[in-house]
């Protein structure tokens, strides 16, 4: 949901109070005192209210493929990654939990076991939790290979431009990419299915610039000022791309990320000049 909001350039404020929607779901949003829960319903609501859309350039067959891939990822691949995260690698996941204080180790242990138990129970109810570990990983690998084949050498799942399915696929591949070290999904995405890793890094650099960046060194260029002094990265609790980043190559009313560095350690570009080739795309979403 957050990745989608960043892709359509809608500012938002996160609340981490654990409050569920009236339907008992997460995520949910409140817009002008109107509550909407469930990712699909939230996106439909925002498209109707604010006129934003990532799929407007897709043909009807492409929209159908996008919907099918979205459901494969949300209703199938999600559970295999959840199994890897919260069942098979619970000890490693426990270490990553953001808990501090004098009883942090105990709280991490309790939280990880509670969450792991919930995941196992829900997986069993779904049906996928009734298979063996090897079978669950076999299902996960099939989904990842399907995504890698569909992506091929394209920049995004449906072609040269972003669509809604990219928000879904990126968000579900992110754990395999960054929070499951040494596991089968990480070995696949950073090995045989390397095109998925490049795809994730492309989107990460464009929409999640605060990941893995030293905030003391990170700065953005403000073309409204003539001096070269850097400005610190703003608090991204309230995130808006138009408030935070500006592309010098864009018209005065168009803003986008200016992320550096733009290559990996080998010197190869990881995102193929995404920043300047699509600088007007987000502005069109608002029209």
Automatic annotation (TrEMBL):
<feature type="domain" description="Thioredoxin-like fold">
    <location>
        <begin position="1"/>
        <end position="89"/>
    </location>
</feature>
<dbReference type="InterPro" id="IPR040079">
    <property type="entry name" value="Glutathione_S-Trfase"/>
</dbReference>
<dbReference type="Pfam" id="PF17171">
    <property type="entry name" value="GST_C_6"/>
</dbReference>
<dbReference type="InterPro" id="IPR026928">
    <property type="entry name" value="FAX/IsoI-like"/>
</dbReference>
<comment type="similarity">
    <text>Belongs to the FAX family.</text>
</comment>
<dbReference type="InterPro" id="IPR012336">
    <property type="entry name" value="Thioredoxin-like_fold"/>
</dbReference>
<dbReference type="InterPro" id="IPR036249">
    <property type="entry name" value="Thioredoxin-like_sf"/>
</dbReference>
<feature type="domain" description="Metaxin glutathione S-transferase">
    <location>
        <begin position="141"/>
        <end position="203"/>
    </location>
</feature>
<protein>
    <submittedName>
        <fullName>Failed axon connections homolog isoform X2</fullName>
    </submittedName>
</protein>
<dbReference type="InterPro" id="IPR033468">
    <property type="entry name" value="Metaxin_GST"/>
</dbReference>
<feature type="region of interest" description="Disordered">
    <location>
        <begin position="244"/>
        <end position="273"/>
    </location>
</feature>
<dbReference type="InterPro" id="IPR050931">
    <property type="entry name" value="Mito_Protein_Transport_Metaxin"/>
</dbReference>
<dbReference type="Pfam" id="PF17172">
    <property type="entry name" value="GST_N_4"/>
</dbReference>
<dbReference type="InterPro" id="IPR036282">
    <property type="entry name" value="Glutathione-S-Trfase_C_sf"/>
</dbReference>
